[in-house]
């Protein structure tokens, strides 16, 4: 019940733009394009990320998400366009960026016999001001595995080690690519908690995922990429409300109700009848408005059912419409 109430509250939040984030921009992506042969993996993508955000990059498999973050981190050179991290070029200032950007790649591995502590100590040695590896293992809940070999770790433990390796350099930015793929539900939720704690440490997080529940739970804003193009950029709640079908409320009225009364309410987009049931669709705090309107005319509502659109609904809708491009923050990305 609490989750449902929180979800409904989120739907009424204002759209999170650069202005009301009230934080400085630290990452800028401007008309980024990257081609592999005849495939345009990233096609004219632009957005910006504010300090302290958990910024999600979502999209179907093969949409161009990983290529985008690889260009941001300097692992790949773009075909055209530019990226800047704290004003630095990822390609021209790679040594400086390595000190402030930690990356957990979608596909990475370690020598099977290397021990957890050995791997962390090795990575820590690359940085001038690393975090304490022992404290990091403790905070990530794998301190008891410090002497375990990599090959003997479970999937969840390997993911936690990947996070530790990305953070041990004490970065200002963490790029986490498909972090929870292959994990069971319990391990996924534990990992979500870890990501939130990373942000609490003051780290800006770029989270690449194709799990909509993950993006909805963690991200302040999301960029939806499909076929290499940016097709939506907003908060998960705003996308769910604006593109996910909004809110649908069904009820059985105790007396006669004029559809025009309900249709005139703010945020209402349609009113339908199915037998004795009334179905009202719209956005915002729809349920409260409808119930208050019924109260004013002396009508009670029974068997009330409310369904809200979610980020997955928006994702399906937007990725089905290939030629639709939404610039939610046009000119401010």
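^ structure tokens above, recovered residues below v
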């Amino acid at each position: 019940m609490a989750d449902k109430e929180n979800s409904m509250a989120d739907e009424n939040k204002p759209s999170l733009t650069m202005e009301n984030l009230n934080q400085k921009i630290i990452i800028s992506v401007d008309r980024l394009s990257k081609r592999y042969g005849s495939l345009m993996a990233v096609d004219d993508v632009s957005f910006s990320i504010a300090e302290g955000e958990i910024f999600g990059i979502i999209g179907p498999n093969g949409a161009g998400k990983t290529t985008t973050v690889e260009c941001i981190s300097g692992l790949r050179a773009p075909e055209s366009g530019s990226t800047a991290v704290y004003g630095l070029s990822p390609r021209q200032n790679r040594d400086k960026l390595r000190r402030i950007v930690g990356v957990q790649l979608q596909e990475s591995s370690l020598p099977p016999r290397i021990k957890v502590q050995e791997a962390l100590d090795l990575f820590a040695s690359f940085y001038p001001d690393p975090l304490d590896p022992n404290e990091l293992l403790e905070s990530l809940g794998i301190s008891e595995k410090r002497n375990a070999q990599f090959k003997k770790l479970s999937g969840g433990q390997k993911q936690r080690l990947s996070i530790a390796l990305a953070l041990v350099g004490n970065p200002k930015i963490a790029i986490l690519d498909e972090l929870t793929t292959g994990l069971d539900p319990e391990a996924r939720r534990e990992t979500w908690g870890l990501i939130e704690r990373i942000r609490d440490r003051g780290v800006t997080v770029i989270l690449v995922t194709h799990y909509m529940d993950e993006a909805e739970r963690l991200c302040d804003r999301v960029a939806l990429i499909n076929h290499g193009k940016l097709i939506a950029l907003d908060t998960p709640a705003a996308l769910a409300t604006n593109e996910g079908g909004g809110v649908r409320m069904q009820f059985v009225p105790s007396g006669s109700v004029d559809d025009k009364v309900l249709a005139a309410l703010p945020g209402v987009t349609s009113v339908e009848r199915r037998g004795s049931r009334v179905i009202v669709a719209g956005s915002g705090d729809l349920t409260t408005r409808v119930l208050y309107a019924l109260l004013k005319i002396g009508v009670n509502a029974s068997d009330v059912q409310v369904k809200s659109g979610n980020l997955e609904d928006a994702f399906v809708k937007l990725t089905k419409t290939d030629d639709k491009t939404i610039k939610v923050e046009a000119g401010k990305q």
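Residues 1-20, 322-333 have pLDDT under 50 and may be disordered.
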